[in-house]
Amino acid sequence: MSREKLRHEMDAGVVFWGVEDDGVLAGVMGIQDVKDVTLIRHAYVRTEKQGGGVGKALLGHLRELTEKPVLIGAWTDAVWAIRFYERNGFERVGVEEKNRLLKTYWDVPERQVETSVVLADERWRRVDVAAGG
Description:
This protein starts with a helix and ends with a helix. It has 6 helices and 6 strands. With about 130 residues, it is an alpha+beta fold.
């Protein structure tokens, strides 16, 4: 991510957290409150650190920071990322709901809406069920 893009994301309210290993940044993940939900944004773990618990630790920490339902957007082709989130308690929402959520909580182009999935945590599923979704 370029410095300009990073600044734009931070100005939009994304707060980034990181994990260091021996003084080297091993992974980063952002959190952003948008309306009545919290979004996990821009999750990256160094290739050599993947599978070592860095992403799980970051995700767990960020989830502890909010009481709101948590949503995550990911590229459909990023199957490794989707599997990671599913192993950590998130479930994909249906296509219609995904389209609605991406247009409500993210500022992304239509092409990205078409090529993305949204995963929701248990809090979202409880709220969605209570709302009749």
